Structures are given as C-alpha cells and as structure tokens.
C-alpha cells in the first residue's frame, strides 16, 4: 500500500492513494490554512469509521441481514498536551433494515472491533480507548 502527500501551499496538502484517489487536507484559517479540506486527524477518524463500517456491513450481509442503511457516528477525545493524540474514541452504529436481528448487529460490531478492523485494533494497541454501541431500526 502506498500514498503520496504533495504540498499545495500554505498548510494545504493533497494526498493521493496508491489507487489514484485524492483528498485535500488543510488547516484552519487561524493556522495559515483556508479550511479547504479535512484536517489530518479528522482523516484518521474517517479511515477508522470506513474500516469498521466496511466490516460490519460485510458481516451483516454474510448473515443475510436485509440492511437498508448503516451510519457510524464517531466522537473522539484528544490529549490536551502535544502530541495531541486520540485518547478515547466512541463509535455508534445506527443500522436500519428489514427484520433485523439485534443479536446479528451486536455480533457484527463485536467482530469488527475485536478481530477484523485493522484501524481500530492498531489504535487500541497504541493506547486509545475505543468503545462501541449500536441501535437497530426496523423499516418496512
């Protein structure tokens, strides 16, 4: 896996993944940026959310759950001192579907957290406390 980060002036950077996708990172205006892209630490949270959401959906599909929507809401706390690392992250899944089994969603979230989500497991090994919760909403 490869990535390239290119300076775009001031505190703006353009990241390109090995697969050719790009993302703009920029700082806030009070730090010389123009607020034209996500902050690097926000991008880390987005990566974590994408990783675990991918797992949860994949597991639920294998369990033949009829999913209509899945949203992962992430809240994080950072240390006050530099480096301002993440100290706590909470991921709350909102899963909508037809005739969903709550136990299936619970199992999918647990498997992602404990076995499959590389981003989550890596951050936990680095000392970040990561917690999970979920809610299930049935739709017709």
Automatic annotation (TrEMBL):
<protein>
    <submittedName>
        <fullName>Predicted redox protein, regulator of disulfide bond formation</fullName>
    </submittedName>
</protein>
<dbReference type="InterPro" id="IPR003718">
    <property type="entry name" value="OsmC/Ohr_fam"/>
</dbReference>
<dbReference type="InterPro" id="IPR015946">
    <property type="entry name" value="KH_dom-like_a/b"/>
</dbReference>
<dbReference type="InterPro" id="IPR036102">
    <property type="entry name" value="OsmC/Ohrsf"/>
</dbReference>
<dbReference type="Pfam" id="PF02566">
    <property type="entry name" value="OsmC"/>
</dbReference>
